[in-house]
């Protein structure tokens, strides 16, 4: 795998985004909602870096897609989410790629009538956006490559890598052989 961002770079980028969020919400209470599952590692770091009174919750979005496949049906499950009505909500996700996931989740959250919704992502992929929306906060812009680690997965693996890496062709072959043996 080709490492794009090591642990130190990730930490510095996330800390910088935490400062921007603090400035934007100065003197206010925040409700942070993480999109499962990709945001779990970012959430753990980000919420400890933001020095503001906050409530923390989650929402689930899942779609069927791999490294090469296109976006499938998106399923949004808000049953586990905390009450966000009349709250300033910051939605947190791992990556803004085409933008369909984040915009659909935001649409869903509006049903619960928050007073505001902004969004923060670890990564924004260059040249991929297909929607009329930009995340309010993004720690890094990355080239159009399929990446894993720091919460991001390929077939639900590699989320635990402490760095961000691009999957290359030989990694995909290794992954296929490995998954075959583990079933
Ligand atoms: P979007 O709807 O195209 O913006 O895709 C967003 C979702 O697709 C993210 O929440 C990820 O779960 C997944 N995704 C997009 N690009 C990557 C990637 O490079 N690695 C891992 N997951 C990705
Ligand atoms: Mg994902």
Mean pLDDT: 95
Number of domains: 1
Number of continuous helical runs: 4
**Total number of β-strand segments?**
9
Question: What is the spatial order of strands in the main beta sheet?
Answer: 4-3-2-5-6-7
Task: Show unreliable segments.
Answer: none
Overall shape: it is globular
- Rg from C-alpha positions? 16 Å
Helix content: 25-40%
What does this structure look like?
The strands form two sheets. The protein has a six-stranded mixed sheet with strand order 4-3-2-5-6-7, with helices on both faces. Strands 1-9-8 form a three-stranded antiparallel sheet. The protein has helices at 7-24, 40-49, 100-110, 169-182, and strands at 2-5, 30-36, 54-63, 74-77, 88-96, 116-125, 137-142, 147-148, 164-166. It has a single domain, classed as Rossmann fold (3-Layer(aba) Sandwich), CATH 3.40.50. The protein is built from four helices and nine strands. It is an alpha/beta fold. The longest helix is centred in the N-terminal third of the chain and has 18 residues, at 7-24. It binds inosinic acid and magnesium ion. The site of inosinic acid has 16 residues, from strand 5, helix 3 and strand 8.
């Amino acid at each position: 795998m080709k490492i794009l961002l090591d642990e130190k770079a990730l930490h510095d980028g996330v800390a910088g985004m935490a400062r921007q969020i603090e400035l934007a919400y100065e003197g206010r209470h925040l409700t942070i909602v993480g999109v499962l599952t990709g945001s779990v590692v970012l959430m753990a770091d980000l919420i400890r870096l933001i020095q503001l009174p906050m409530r923390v919750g989650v929402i689930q979005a899942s779609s069927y897609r791999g490294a090469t496949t296109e976006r499938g049906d998106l399923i949004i499950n808000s049953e586990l989410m905390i009450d966000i009505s009349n709250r300033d909500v910051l939605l947190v996700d791992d990556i803004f790629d085409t933008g369909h996931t984040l915009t659909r989740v935001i649409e869903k959250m509006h049903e619960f009538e928050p007073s505001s919704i902004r969004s923060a992502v670890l990564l924004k992929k260059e040249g991929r956006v297909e929607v009329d929306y930009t995340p309010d906060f993004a720690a890094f812009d990355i080239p159009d490559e399929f990446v894993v680690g720091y919460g991001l997965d390929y077939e639900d693996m590699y989320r635990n890598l402490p760095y961000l890496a691009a999957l290359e062709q030989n990694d995909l072959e290794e992954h296929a052989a490995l998954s075959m043996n583990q079933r």
